[in-house]
Amino acid sequence: MTDSVPGPVHPMPTAIAALRPLALTDVTFAPASLLGEWQRRNATRTLPHCVDQLDASGALDNLRRVTGEVGGAHQNMWFADSDVYKTLEAAAWQLGRTPDDAALRSFVDSTAALLAGAIDADGYLNSHITLVKPEQRWQELHWSHELYCAGHLIQAAVAAARAGVGAELLPTARRFADLIVARFSAVDDVDGHPEIETALVELYRVTGHRPYLDLARRFLDLRGHGLLNGERFGSAYLQDHVPVRRAQAVAGHVVRQLYLLAGVVDVAVETHDDELLDAAHRLWDDAFGAKTYLTGAQGSRHRDEAFGDPYELPPDRAYGETCAGIASFQWNWRMLLATGDARYADEMERALHNVIAGSTALDGTHFFYSNPLHLRTGHDGSHEDAPSQRLPWYSCACCPPNLARLVASLSGYAVTTDHSGLQVHLYAAGTVETTVDGSAVRVSTRTDYPWDGRVELTVATEAPLVLALRMPGWCPVADVRVDGAPVQAGAVRDGYLRLRRDWSGGATVTLDLPMPARVVRPHPRIDAVRGCVALTRGPLVYCLEQADLPAGVTLEDVRVDPAAPIAVDRLADIPVVLRARGAIEQPGSAALYTASAPTAPRTEPLALTAVPYFLWGNRVPGPMRVWLPVTTTG
Amino acid sequence: MTDSVPGPVHPMPTAIAALRPLALTDVTFAPASLLGEWQRRNATRTLPHCVDQLDASGALDNLRRVTGEVGGAHQNMWFADSDVYKTLEAAAWQLGRTPDDAALRSFVDSTAALLAGAIDADGYLNSHITLVKPEQRWQELHWSHELYCAGHLIQAAVAAARAGVGAELLPTARRFADLIVARFSAVDDVDGHPEIETALVELYRVTGHRPYLDLARRFLDLRGHGLLNGERFGSAYLQDHVPVRRAQAVAGHVVRQLYLLAGVVDVAVETHDDELLDAAHRLWDDAFGAKTYLTGAQGSRHRDEAFGDPYELPPDRAYGETCAGIASFQWNWRMLLATGDARYADEMERALHNVIAGSTALDGTHFFYSNPLHLRTGHDGSHEDAPSQRLPWYSCACCPPNLARLVASLSGYAVTTDHSGLQVHLYAAGTVETTVDGSAVRVSTRTDYPWDGRVELTVATEAPLVLALRMPGWCPVADVRVDGAPVQAGAVRDGYLRLRRDWSGGATVTLDLPMPARVVRPHPRIDAVRGCVALTRGPLVYCLEQADLPAGVTLEDVRVDPAAPIAVDRLADIPVVLRARGAIEQPGSAALYTASAPTAPRTEPLALTAVPYFLWGNRVPGPMRVWLPVTTTG
C-alpha cells in the first residue's frame, strides 16, 4: 500500500462537514471496472497526450521564454499557462496513486524546476504578461486571467504537496500566493475568471496559513459590485452584476459561475458562513431546477458560454462545455461534503457518466469541448466550436487537461467517512481500505455497475460502523440484503440506506438497484424538446446514432413509441444497448410552414437501437440525438 | 411631380430582367397607409436619430480626424465609416422623394464635402486604417472591412447620383473605386465581408464603366478558394469554403452570405451568366426551404451570426439580425427582377411586415439588432446581444442606418414594369404614376392592407396594358373584379393574376384577398417548435405578449386550442388582434426530468389575445412568443 494521499478538497477539522473525504489512495477501482478502465486510459493515453501537447502548442515554451531558455514571441492563448498547471495537477494525482511512473515524475520535476526559474524575484508568474505586456500587470484583470492562472498553479502545488511529488512546486506557488495576498489585501480588485478563490482555500488547507482563506473570502465579497469591465459580454458574464450572497440565479459564463461556487462552498465551510452556504443552496436549486441538461451538461449558449434563461435547453445547440461538467462535479462534491445529501452525489454521477465521460473518445486522445445532445443531419461540423467529431486538441485547450486531473483523482470522490461510518457515493468494482474513528475498515466491491445494478460489498471492520449506501435518485426502490437477509428500506435518509452493525466477522451486503430501461419526459417548459422522450437506464442516458439506422433514413424523421416495451441487449463492444419500437415518419409536405390541415406523414415501423450517450461518435461519425420525438400515434 | 429618381438596383437595358423597377418617385404611399406612415416615421424620427448618432458615436469624428478637423484617437468600430455611408444613402433616397428637406440636404452636402477632404491623394478612404494602422492597408482583408466600407460609400454615391444630390459624392466614390480596380485586378484578394460586389455593379449601372462590373465578377470567382484567414470562425463564416458557383447550401454569417448573393444576381444578370444565376436559385431553395423563420428572419446562431443547420430554428435563440432581414429583402428583389416569380415578392413581404418592421419601435428611435420569436419568462436581457427591449443604438450600429436606407427607398420596391404592363408586388394605399412602353399610366390604390385584404385599384392608361397583381402565397383563393365583373382565376401565372385590357376609359379593379386568421404548423424537422402552432393573418405573424395575460400567469404555461375558432378584433391602437381559445396548463411536477408517468397538468381555460409580431414590445415590456404549444387535449 502506498502512503496515504489526500485527494482534492480536504476541509480543515474545524470546517462545516457532514462528511469527510477519504484519501485518494484509500479507494482503488478494479482495472476491469468502467472507472478503473477510464483511469487506465487517462494514465496511459490522455495524460501523456496532454504532456505532448504542452510542448506542441507552445505552452511550455512560453514559460521557457520567461527563463530565457527559448526565444521567440509568446504563442497560444494568453492563459495557456493554466494548461501547464492543470496537466501538472493531473500528473501529481496520478503519481499519488502510481508513484513509479518515471516519465510522469520527470515531467513534474522538470516543470516544477522550470516554474521555479520562471517566477519573478517578487513572486509574480505569468508568461503572457511578462513577455507581451509587462506594464499591464494586474491592470486588465477582467480579461487577463492572471489570478485564474495563479489559481491553477496553486491547485497543482496543492496536489503535488498532497501526493508528495514535485517538491519545488509548493514553495513557488506560495511565493506567488504571498505576492497576491500582499497586493490584493490592499486594493479592491477581482479576476474576471474565478478559480483563485477555491485555490486559496485549498492552499490554506495544506499550509494552515490563514491569510489565504481571508483573501479568498475577500475576493468573493468584492465580486458583484461592478469592479470589472464587462464591456464584451456584460457584467453577468463575469458574475459581477450582483454579490453572490444576494444572487438569486446562476448567470453568465458557466465555468466562471461554477468555479466561483466551488470557492463559495469552500469559504463557507471553513469560516462557518451560513449566508454564503445559503447562497450556494439557492443557486444550486436554480441551476439544477431549470438550467441543466439530462446529461448533466450545463450552458445553453455558444456565444458567451453561458447558462441560458430558465428552461432554455436546446439539445442541438447545447454548449455543455466539458469543463462545466467537471466544474459541476466539483461543486456538487463540495456540497455533498458540507451536507451529506445524496442529491449532490446524484448530480456527480449524472455528470460523470454522461457529459464528462462522453467528452473523451475511447482512444483517450480526442475530446469534445462542447457536448450537444443532438447532432443534426446536415450539421456543418467544420469548425472547432461545434465539430462533428472529437478533436485531438483545441485552440483554447482548457478541457483535456481538466479531464486528466479529474480522472486521475476520481478515486478521491467515491467514498467518504464521518465519525461513525462510511458512505459509498459512486459504485464501482474495487476496494476501500481506510480507518474510521481509528479502526481499520475494508470494503471489497464486486459489480458491473453502471451496466448492472447489482452491487456486492464485502465489509470487514474492527469496530461497529454505519455503512451508508447511496440510493440513486433514478432508482425508486432497491433490494438490499446483508448476508442474504433482507433489509428494511425504512432506513433511507438523505438518499442513503444506513446499515449499522458490527462487521467484525465480515459480511456481504448485496444491493440490487433495478435497472429497467426508462422513458424520461422533460418539464413542459423546456420548449426545445416538447413531444420528445429520452431513454435512460440506471445512471446512463441513451441516444440514437445514424450508425444504427438503415441506409437513407434521416435521423430527424425517426420516432419512438414510448408505450412499447424496451429490451436490453448487447451490441459488439457495448455491454448494454436498448432496443425500442419506433417508426420512420416522412413529412407529408416539404413546406417549412403550412396553414393547411397537417398532412399525415408516410409512416413505417422501425426497430430502434439506442446506445449509451457517453459512447456516441466512437464508431462511424454521423448524426446523433438523445431526445426522440414520439410516434404520432404513440 | 418631382424629377424621376431611379431607386436601388436598376439593371442595364442589356441585363437579364423579367421585370424592370419603376423610379422611386413613380410610387407614392398614402400618408395614412402602413408603409406611408412608416416612411414618415423614418424621415422624421429614424433618419434624424441616425444623423445625430453619427456625431454622438464618433463615426463622423473619425473622418474629421483624417482631414485634421478634429484631434484624438479613432473611436468606435473599425468599420464605423459604413454607418456614415448607410445614413448618407438613406438621406439621398429620402431627398430623392422629398427634395426640400433642408436639414437633410445640409447633412448630405457637408458629409460629401468631408469625404472629399478625407480621401487620400491616391483615392484611398478608410478612417480606421488611416488613423490606426496605415501600414496595414489591404493587409487584413479577412477582418478589416475596407472593401465593405468602400462598397457602402459606393452605394451612397449611387443613391446620391440617382437622387441628384450630394454632387461631390460620386466623384469621391469613383476615385476610391478606380483605386480598387487598379489594385484588385492584379492581386488575388477578396474582402471578408461581401458588399463591394453589388456596389460595383450598381456603380457600373450609374457610370457605364465596365471595369467595375468585371471586378465584381472577379471578386465572386476568387471567393471560396480559402484566400481569407478563417481562424476565428472558420472559412464558411466568410463564404470562403467553396466557390459560390458550386455551393449547395447557404452557410456562415448570414449578412455576408446574403450580400454576396445580391452581388451574385447583379453580376449574373449583367453578364448573362446562367451558372451564377443557377447558384442563386439553388441557395435560395436551401435558405427558404430549411433556414428561414416564420417571420422571414434568418440566422439561428448568436455566436457567429450564422445560418444554423437545416431546420435548426430555435425561436428563443433566433438571431434573426435586422440587417439579415433587410439583406434577404434586397436579394429577393433582385431575384424577382430577374425572374418575375412571385415567390420572391412573397418573401419580401414576409420579411418586410414581420422581422424588418418589428425591429423598429413605434417611436422610430429604438431598434432590435436580433429579432427572436420568443422572449422567455426570466430572460436576462441585460446585454445588448439579446436585450428585452429595443435599444436606441448599438456598439455595432449596422442595423439602424440600414433600416433608414431601406425604408427611405421602399417605394422603389413595390411595383415594376415590363414591355407590356405593370406588376404590383407590395400592396399599399397610394398612387403609381409612370409610363409603360412610352404611354402614361396612373394607378390609384385604396386599401387598408395589411389589416384588410380588399385592394381597390383605379387604373387609367393611354394604351392597353397588362396589370399583374400578386396573389400572395398565403392566400389560396382570391376574388377579383373589374368594375364589378368577376375575373377568372385561371389567369394566375408565376403567382400573378394578369389583367390585359384597354384601361383608357379608366377602370377599377377590386381584389379581395380573404384574411381569415390561420393556424400555421411547422415542418416536423423543426424540432424546436414541435407541438406548437403559430397564428397568422394575411402577411402578418401574430404573437402572445405578457401584457395580454392575467397577472401571475407564466407565458410558457399558456396553450392554444388550434381547433377552436379564432375571432378578429381591435385592441386600442392595434387595428387587428386575434382572439383565440386556450388554456393555462401548470406543470404537474416541478421536476426538470421525470421517468414516472406524466402528471396531468392543472388546466384552466384562458381567452388569448394575439397581437401582430411587428408591434411586440411597444407596450409594457415582457415575455413574448410566436409559436404556441397546443392544448394537451386540443
Automatic annotation (TrEMBL), chains A, B:
SUPFAM superfamilies: Six-hairpin glycosidases. It comes from the Bacteria. The lineage of its organism: Bacteria, Bacillati, Actinomycetota, Actinomycetes, Pseudonocardiales. It comes from Goodfellowiella coeruleoviolacea. Coiled coil: none annotated. Residues 422-515 form the Non-reducing end beta-L-arabinofuranosidase-like GH127 middle domain. It holds the Pfam family Glyco_hydro127M. PANTHER family: DUF1680 DOMAIN PROTEIN (AFU_ORTHOLOGUE AFUA_1G08910). Residues 33-411 form the Non-reducing end beta-L-arabinofuranosidase-like GH127 catalytic domain. This is Glycoside hydrolase family 127 protein. Residues 518-629 form the Non-reducing end beta-L-arabinofuranosidase-like GH127 C-terminal domain.
